[in-house]
Amino acid sequence: MKVTWVLPGGEEVVADVQTGVNLMEAAQAHNIAGVQGECGGSLSCATCHVHVDGDWLAKAGEKGDFEEAMLDMADGEVTDASRLSCQIEASDDLDGIRLIVPV
User: Fold this and answer.
1) Residue 44 maps to which CATH number?
2) Which residues form the 2Fe-2S ferredoxin-type domain (predicted)?
3) Using one digit for the tens of pLDDT, what is the confidence trace for 60-99?
């Protein structure tokens, strides 16, 4: 599947991601600046914070309560579109998803 990350300056990075990989790991594999994932995806930090493009919000799934609480620690503006990318798993349904890396 394809994922597009939109960086703060407007540059877009498009990459192929294998089904089952979480999008934080995919961002790290493709050196996406601004998506650190310091906790390794264990849901104990908010350094993989992204905004899911509005067209993809429903398909990306609901935030869990713990994810919502962790987003309170996120850098950058937290919006209704905010997600921790470690909590979004690549799937055929998400082929073409766009993630905006917040400033």
Assistant:
1) 3.10.20.30
2) 1-103
3) 999 999 999 999 999 889 999 999 999 999 999 999 999 9
